[in-house]
């Protein structure tokens, strides 16, 4: 009897251990492609199609290919500008809702092959992809599922048509780093059932390193708005139950879910202009560099990635106003984050710009950084080692005023990066305390900076 009880005890203990171990292993973490994607920080969207020449935001599919004629198109000039201003990827609208293809697709006549541009021999997608490789940035594309020109749209046959075009883009343009999907549908074709699982599987097979974007991922999710703002609380995890491209709660996507079992971080898409396509009347309404810096803090600085749209003009180039704003934006960021006051004042693991080197902190275990002398700063950057997941729920940063600790900022999630902005402080010591976390925190980076005067 004693032996039987002992055996039962061993089985019970093993069951508990296995349960705990499985739970620990299920802590959501990014894939290698997701981890690499998040560290890009700023990427560019290039909205370009017949709309550029009609002045519309959404074309209706009846536009003649003859109107597409960017007389000075220069992919190298545009991609070089992106490279110079710190953008790590360009995503071209290979096909928007109007159905016009920026590459010579063999499955439709509604494409550049029937335009006057380069005598019908041009390929915008190829020129952008090749320029990205020459300048050392990544390449991606958006292929709109909604097609207002294709006659098979609204039927099952359209899914085959779409996959054929998707395969062209995945096999003829070298390495693809992101494929952008949405769930937009025509009012007269609500019954259209997009085969997203089939689309995604095709990408996985042909371009396994590419991240897949949509409201529901499966790699990257929409941030829930087009204003450029991730949530003050922004988890990289969500529960995908009931979610699909075009079917999602925007507020849920904006904040994520601390209990979500799927690692699907947020991408913050926003345009440098009021519209997504170039319109001459908006030349005076381009966001200034300072405004884009603010978007950076509200996206990258809240555990998201900034996807900024810069639409080529009718010539096939970035407009001068847009170029100036991009250079101003990057100059401000470079100046602000040029000198980390924590460098040499704390463990090198926290200032080596590597997520893989970190220290571990438990809840309510103060981390004190002593500068040894008074320093002046108004920006703080904090990063977790997200390769092993996201842990911080709530934390506080304080400074020593010579007599007591005073609060600088109390905040929630960190994840890949949290940027804090506040009035300038002079102090010799700061203290970071994790108030609530999902488990021990792997603090990878911490930085203290003085903002550029132009910011």
Distance between the ends: 77 Å
Mean pLDDT, rounded to whole units?
94
Largest sheet: 8 strands, parallel, barrel
Summarize the amount of helix as a percent range.
25-40%
How many strand elements?
16
As laid out across the biggest beta sheet, the strand order is 1-2-3-4-5-6-9-10
Series of secondary-structure elements, N-terminal to C-terminal = HHEHHEHEHEHEEEHEEHEHEEEEEE
User: Strand share of the residues?
Assistant: 15-25%
> Structural class of the secondary elements?
alpha/beta
Low-confidence stretches: 1-25
Q: Given the structure, what is the number of helices? A: 10
Q: Measured on Cα atoms, how large is the radius of gyration?
A: 25 Å
Give a concise summary.
With 455 residues, this protein is of the alpha/beta class. The chain has 10 helices and 16 strands. The strands form 3 sheets. An 8-stranded parallel β-barrel has the order 1-2-3-4-5-6-9-10. The chain has a 6-stranded antiparallel β-sheet with strand order 11-16-12-15-13-14, with no helix packed on it. Strands 7-8 form a two-stranded antiparallel sheet.
